[in-house]
Each structure stands twice: as C-alpha cells, then as structure tokens.
Design brief:
Elements lengths: L21 H7 L9 E8 L5 E3 L7 E3 L1 H14 L3 E7 L18 H12 L4 E6 L21 H18 L3 E4 L6 H11 L6 E8 L6 H6 L21 H13 L3 E5 L5 H11 L3 E5 L1 H12 L5 H14 L4 E4 L2 H8 L1
Parallel strand pairs: 1-3, 1-4, 1-10, 4-5, 5-6, 6-7, 7-8, 8-9, 9-10
Antiparallel strand pairs: 2-3
The structure holds ligand PBG.
The site of ligand PBG has 12 residues, from helix 6.
C-alpha cells in the first residue's frame, strides 16, 4: 500500500472527489476480499439425518458425511479454497479422555475421506482439540482438581493430528492452546512421513464469550464445566499474543490464526505486520450469530454486513478468513 505524505489543503484538495462514482471508488479501493480468501467452517455429525439445524446459528446445519461431501463439491464450484471441519459427536462416544478423537474409524477421518473423494481440489483443515470428544467439554485431559493437563494433552493431540493426516487432511489446526503442541505435532507428522501436511496454529486464541453458539453446534455447551481461562488467552492482552505467535512459528507453524475476529482486529493487524507469515482470522460463531440475529429482525442488511466484515479482515492484514458465511460470501464476491 503506497503511503503518501502529501496532504494538500481544502479547497484545492477535496477528499470527496474520488468518492463520487462507483467506478472511481472501485478504482482506488485498497482491500478487496475475494472467494480465494475464504475457508468454509462446516459442522459435521455422526448421525443418520442429512442436516440438523443449529439453533444458535440460523442457516448453519450439522451435516452428515454424504452432505459434507456435497459441500466440498459446492466449495469447488464457488472457488472456495478450503473447508474447516468441526465435529459433533454422539454423547455415547464421549469419555473423560476424549479417546474417540484418536479413532481412525471415527467421524472426522470418514468426513475427510468422503470430501477428498468428492472434491480432491478443495483443501481440508481439521480442528485438533479434544473438546467435542470429552465428557467434560474441555480441550484436554483433566487432573483430579479439574486442571487441564498440558503435556498429557499434547500427547493425545499428536495422536489426533496423526489420525487426521493419515485420513488425508491437508491442514491440521490445533485450537487447544496447550504449550508445545505445534512442535510435538510437527515431529510426529514428519516421523510418519507427512512432511507436506500443513499446520495452521490457533496461535492467539482468546477466552471469549463469542464462542457460545459454537459450543451449542458441537454439543459441548451442555457438558462444559467452568471456563477455559487457564489455557485460552486473557482478552486484555496483546504482548502475550505476539509471544504465543512467535513460539508457534518457531515450533513449525505454517500459518497462524487470530480468534475471535472482528473484536480482535488490532491483534490481526499486529500479528500480520510483525511476523509476515500467513495470518488467518476466524469470524467465529458469535460474530455469525450477531449478524444473523440482527438481519432476521430487519435491523441490518446481512449481505452488506458480510462483505464489510470480510473487507475489514483484509484491511487489517489477514490472508484468509474462516467463516460460516463462506458459501454466501463466495456468491457475493465471485
Ligand atoms: C475449541 C474450539 C472453539 C471453537 C472451535 N474450536 C472454542 C471453544 O469452544 O472454546 C470456536 C469456533 C466458533 O466459535 O465459531 N477447541
């Protein structure tokens, strides 16, 4: 972006001149999101029903495996580069250790295989974290006091990432915020021959109220005890986000992510400008729900809000955006 120091003074300089026409506005626009910037957040489930609406996220359904494969074809048609998969697991498969996360015959590996068979050109990213699989809804293993154990959890996460890579995932995306998991996962993937599987690290992930609808979508809201403040970041902090990001890059992250999105654009801006690595941002469930709820009341224009928020992410320096709006956004931007 060219930075001119020439300002000029009114009335010879009139900032509104180039705003007069649609053509001149388009000509000087700096940030333009395109379908290439999108990662489609998809919720999948292990039941028979094709689609189950998520109450807190109007317009988002939990998809069964066949529907997920169709969504991959749809992503290809719309030019959406990648899909991020989030699983809703039947309660009978949950336990304290979240061991279903490491099941090579589980839902996520089956979804990866079905999507890859249907549309191999679409990138598949998988969430690495135990919360959809644990009976307590936390992202890791608990000790007797209910504290989330770090190193024991990292061992379980490396197994989970390995299962995803073996099933054909292109990207593994640890969203758990344990220390040291990026390096451990990279080592495990390399040992097993998956040198080209990418790691998208949720590097700066804050303990946020805006995850509420997601926890309903993946079925952790009902079981989660307490909060996640001992592992997700405190929302008052910036320097900590930069340190988290630096460590993840050092450990081998190919891309980093900031989450949530819109309320944390300052973090997106600093991470993208200070590290110069591909920086993704997650327009999370609560951000989606806010726009949907207001639009349903007729209080704002949904399509315009989608394009504006995506432009804001690009303006802040994001290389891409994970969003539940991806299908509609690709239509609007394509
Ligand atoms: C946790 C995880 C979260 C999301 C995805 N994976 C947050 C959480 O439950 O703490 C949030 C996604 C969203 O809100 O859209 N591993």
């Amino acid at each position: 972006m060219p930075k001119s120091l020439v300002t000029g003074a009114f009335p010879s300089s009139r900032m509104r001149r180039v705003r007069q026409h649609d053509w001149s506005r388009r000509l000087v626009r700096e940030s333009k999101p395109s379908p290439d910037d999108l990662v489609w957040g998809l919720i999948v489930h292990d039941g028979k029903e094709k689609r189950i609406p998520v109450k807190t996220m109007p317009g988002v359904d939990r998809l069964n495996i066949d529907e997920a494969a169709k969504a991959a074809v749809r992503a290809r048609e719309l030019g959406i580069p990648a899909i991020a998969v989030f699983p809703h697991i039947d309660g009978s498969k949950k336990n304290d250790a979240g061991s279903e996360a490491g099941n090579p015959e589980g839902l996520v590996p089956a979804v990866i295989q079905a999507m890859k068979a249907a549309a191999p050109e679409v990138g598949i990213a998988c969430d690495v974290a135990l919360d959809p699989f644990t009976s307590h809804g936390h992202d890791g293993l608990l000790d007797e006091a209910g504290y989330v154990l770090n190193d024991e959890t990292v061992a379980a996460l490396t197994e989970q990432a390995l299962v995803q890579a073996r099933a054909g995932a292109d990207i593994v995306a640890p969203s758990d915020m344990m220390d040291g998991r990026i390096g451990a996962i990279r080592d495990m993937l390399d040992e097993d021959g998956h040198h080209n599987v990418m790691i998208l690290s949720y590097a700066a992930k804050y303990a946020s109220a805006f995850y509420g609808p997601y926890r309903d979508a993946v079925g952790t809201a009902a079981v989660l005890k307490g909060d996640k403040k001992t592992y997700q970041m405190d929302f008052g902090n910036t320097e900590e986000a930069l340190r988290e990001t630096a460590m993840d890059i050092e450990e081998g992250a190919d891309m980093v992510m900031v989450k949530p999105g819109l309320p944390y654009l300052d973090i997106v801006q600093r991470v993208s400008s200070e590290f110069g690595v591909p920086t993704l941002v997650f327009q999370i469930s609560g951000e989606y729900a806010q726009i949907k709820a207001a639009a349903a009341q007729g209080w704002l224009d949904e399509d315009k809000a989608i394009v504006e928020t995506l432009s804001a992410f690009k303006r802040a320096g994001a290389s891409g955006v994970i969003t539940y709006f991806a299908e509609r956004a690709a239509q609007l931007l394509g």
